[in-house]
Structures are given as C-alpha cells and as structure tokens.
C-alpha cells in the first residue's frame, strides 16, 4: 500500500485526485452552530448538507462547533481535533465506493463536568442554532411520553442550574445568559428520530427551565424556535473495516464515516435567529413535516425492528443479510405492506407502498454493513416509538395485528439474552437487566413481558393484542424462530 496521508488542513492538497475535498477556505469560516452529540450520523447527514452549501460559496458564517456532555465524548473530541475536525465520508453504493473529505466543523468544545465551556459558547450571539443528536432515548421522557422530572440527572440540573449534567441543562444555562445579556434566543434543532422531535425538544428544555426559573421558561417558550424535522440516512458504526476503507483511498482518518447514497432532511422553516440556505442543497422545508416523519418512522425505523430482533436470534449479523434470508424478507415485506403501510399517508411524490419498495432496495444494499445489533439497540425506546402507535391504530379500527404481534414476541424472545445457537446477546438496551428479567419470566408466562416492562400501557390489557402476542411467544420458545417465520409465511 502506498504511504497514507494523515488527514489535516495542511495535507488536503496531498489527497488523491479521486477524493473530493472542500472547495472553500476553512480558515475563513466562522461558527454559527453548536452541535451536541457529534457521532457518525451528524457528520454524514446534517454536516454534509452544510458542507455542500459551503462548497457553493454560501454559509461561510455557519460553521459547526462540536460538543458533548458524556465522558465518552472526550475520546471523539481527541480524534477529531487531531485531524482539524475533518471527516472522510465514504459512500457505499452497490456500484462501488467513493470518498470525500468534509470540513464544516471547525472545533470541538471541551468535554467537562459542569459543561462550562459549552454553556459559555452557546451564550455568545454568533451561535444561532444549537442542534442535537443524542438518540431517541435521550430526551428524559416518562412512560407516557411526557417530561420525566424525577430522573436523577434532571433533578441535579434543576438544583444546580449553573453546573448541569445534561445537554438540556446546558442549553437552559446558556439561554439564561443570552436573555440577561441581550444576545437573544437561538433555535434548538433536534435531529433525532422522534415523532414531533421539535416539540419534544421544546418540552424538555422549557420544562427543565421551569423547575428552577419559571420566568426564564416563559421567555424560552416565547422567543426560541424548535422546528420539527425528519432526518434519514443509513450510517453504520465505525470500526476497523471503515478505517481500512479510508486507508484504501490513501487517507489516515481516525474516525471516518460510511453511509448510503440516499439522504433526506425535511423540516419546518421556523428559525428565530436565521439559518443557512439549506434548500439550495436539497433540504425540504414544509409545514407538514409530520407526514414525512410518520412515513419514515412507521416504515423505515419500524422496519429495522422487524428485521433486527429476529436477525439477532438467527445470528444474522447485518440488515442486508436479513434481507437475503427468505423467511425474514417475507416477514418484513408482509408486515410493512399489509399492516403498516395502510396506516401511513402519502407525501408529495411518494406513496407508502413506493416507500416500502425504496426501503427494500436500501436495506438490501450489501455494501452497507449495518449490523442487526446497532439497529436493535434501545428497543425499549424504539418499539414504543415506531411500532406501538401502529398497533394501537389497527386495534382501534378492528384491523389485523398478527405480524406486529409477532414482531413484539420476537423482541421479547431476543431479550432472554440468548440466540437460537445458544450464544449470548450482550446487553443492548439501557434497560437490559430489567428486560431480561421480564423475558425470562415470560418463557413460562408470556403475559409477564407485557406486564413487567412498563412499555405497553393500555396495550398490555388489550385482549386481541395480548392473545396474539402470547400465542406467538409461546410458539417461539417451543419451536424456534425459523419455523415460526415459515408458519407466518404460510398464513399470509
């Protein structure tokens, strides 16, 4: 292999000609956005849109400052600052791979107890957007979806508003300073897979502020913007294989990102302190984000759960591998088309059925090594968020829920912690110990899963759903996953 080029501003000119690089002068960029939760998805998605806009000669005053509030974020900070916050993006298409280096992020703020540096930087008037990717389960919601004021982190931030632990506490502290100095509000932009994610972010920030300063909470609610947004791009985790892919392009990158060709970003045009002209690079602005997010959450994100739990049980390591498995593919397509798509409305230029066909193509892309473990992570947030609303709607209208009930039974079976071959499923949920205990009890009493997890609410007492779920789970434990998928196929 030829000598690798370490990624940095100084070496951009030495990169191979096949690698696209920034066409803008990074030294002339100034910050306008703080992004909290600087992972792969943000760099492949939101940062890419800004990068392409900068390539077009625009948005030079909207550069990104990375941030994190977890101790583990310090390692990411070290990796990225060690390469001038540049990222190699590697597009994995069925026809081949391509690479580009992106540079809209110009620094990563210190990760520290109390978040002083983060608060101080968000309080400066040049920061006009604070965006977040902190996972679906990171918004301190209770079982009913409301604000969880009893969480220990929230209680800490309410009692210690100047030295918060959470991203939201840091936002509240920064907004207090902005109000007091006259710097004005900023826009809070959620980029996580949550229905009504802007409303969720508003509720979290305003509710937390109200615990310590009701007047500040009123000011935030009245002046800050929290647009709803829908994001979509399949972005696998980075490991040795992804680093090797970057090296194959001659680049020594400590944190490259692989991604599919498809991207989508849909949001409301509600930005109290201005925004980049993202529409110039393909972002959709609409008053009906809900329809787009409903289609994506109910079909794509739910589809991941249809595949991943069964895939884990069958030791199928990737989403593309699941799509190659006849039983899994049939189960996925049948539930998507017959039970979920009828509950989803069309959006401009896309019907639910066409969207399912698009998902099938995307999930079948073997170049995307997206693991079943990754998409199965945090089922205790993803099942209630992506699958349970459809189950409730179909029950209310008297429609069938057989496949959806099987999906829930497969999750319960997976949470016993053992695959069909006897190998261990290592913890994969913030509530893993609780889920395993409920799943083990449900081996002999299937209703225990619905009763013990606290995730089903009224569904646990719905006779049609409970009976279908319990029947499937009993059969899974007795007969195994593959025979049950065959049985499901025979019934459909």
From TrEMBL:
Keywords: Oxidoreductase
InterPro entries referenced in this protein's UniProt entry, alphabetically: 6-PGluconate_DH-like_C_sf (IPR008927), 6PGD_dom2 (IPR013328), Mannitol_DH (IPR000669), Mannitol_DH/Oxidoreductase (IPR050988), Mannitol_DH_C (IPR013118), Mannitol_DH_N (IPR013131), NAD(P)-bd_dom_sf (IPR036291)
Keyword Oxidoreductase recorded: yes
Domain Mannitol dehydrogenase N-terminal: 32-279
Domain called Mannitol dehydrogenase C-terminal: residue spans: 288-475
Gene Ontology MF terms: oxidoreductase activity, acting on the CH-OH group of donors, NAD or NADP as acceptor
PANTHER family per record: MANNITOL DEHYDROGENASE 2-RELATED, MANNITOL DEHYDROGENASE DSF1-RELATED
Protein name per Swiss-Prot or TrEMBL: Mannitol dehydrogenase family protein
Annotated organism of origin: Psychromarinibacter sediminicola
């Amino acid at each position: 292999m030829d000598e690798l080029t370490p990624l940095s501003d100084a070496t951009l000119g030495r990169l191979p000609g096949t690698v696209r690089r920034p066409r803008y002068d990074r030294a002339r960029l100034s910050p306008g956005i703080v992004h909290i939760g600087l992972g792969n998805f943000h760099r492949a998605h939101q940062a890419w849109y800004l990068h392409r806009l900068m390539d077009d000669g625009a948005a030079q005053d909207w550069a990104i400052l990375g941030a994190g509030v977890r101790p583990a974020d310090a390692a990411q900070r070290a990796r990225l600052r060690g390469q001038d916050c540049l990222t190699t993006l590697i597009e994995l298409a069925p026809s081949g791979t391509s690479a580009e280096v992106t540079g809209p992020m110009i620094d990563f703020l210190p990760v520290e107890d109390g978040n002083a540096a983060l608060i101080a930087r968000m309080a400066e008037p040049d920061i006009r957007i604070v965006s977040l990717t902190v996972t679906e389960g990171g918004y301190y919601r209770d079982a009913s979806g409301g604000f969880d004021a009893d969480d220990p982190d929230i209680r800490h931030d309410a009692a210690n508003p100047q030295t918060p632990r959470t991203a939201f506490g840091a936002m509240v502290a920064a907004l207090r300073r902005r109000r007091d100095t006259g710097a004005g509000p900023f826009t809070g932009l959620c980029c996580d897979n949550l229905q009504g994610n802007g409303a969720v972010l508003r509720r979290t920030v305003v509710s937390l502020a109200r615990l310590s300063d009701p007047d500040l909470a009123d000011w935030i609610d009245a002046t800050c913007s929290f647009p709803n947004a829908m994001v979509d791009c399949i972005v696998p985790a980075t490991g040795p294989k992804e680093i090797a892919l970057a090296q194959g392009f001659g680049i020594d990158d400590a944190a490259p990102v692989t991604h599919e060709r498809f991207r989508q970003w849909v949001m409301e045009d509600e930005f109290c302190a201005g925004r980049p002209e993202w529409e110039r690079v393909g972002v959709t602005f609409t008053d009906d984000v809900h329809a787009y997010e409903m289609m994506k959450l109910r079909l794509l994100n739910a589809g991941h759960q249809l595949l991943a739990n069964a895939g884990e049980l069958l030791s199928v390591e990737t989403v593309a591998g699941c799509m190659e498995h006849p039983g899994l593919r049939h189960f996925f397509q049948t539930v998507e088309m017959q039970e979920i798509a009828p509950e989803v409305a069309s959006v401009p230029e896309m019907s639910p059925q066409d969207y399912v066909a698009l998902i099938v193509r995307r999930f079948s892309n073997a170049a995307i090594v997206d693991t079943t473990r990754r998409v199965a992570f945090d089922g205790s947030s993803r099942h209630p968020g992506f699958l349970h609303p459809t189950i409730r709607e179909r029950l209310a209208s008297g429609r069938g829920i057989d496949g959806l009930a099987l999906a829930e039974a497969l999750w319960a079976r997976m949470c016993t912690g053992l695959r069909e071959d006897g190998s261990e499923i290592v913890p994969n949920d913030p509530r893993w110990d609780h889920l395993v205990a409920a799943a083990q009890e449900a081996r002999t009493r299937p209703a225990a899963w619905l009763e013990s997890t606290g995730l089903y609410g009224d569904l646990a007492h719905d006779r049609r759903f409970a009976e279908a779920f319990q029947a499937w789970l009993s059969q899974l434990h007795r007969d195994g996953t593959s025979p049950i998928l065959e049985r499901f196929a025979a019934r459909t």
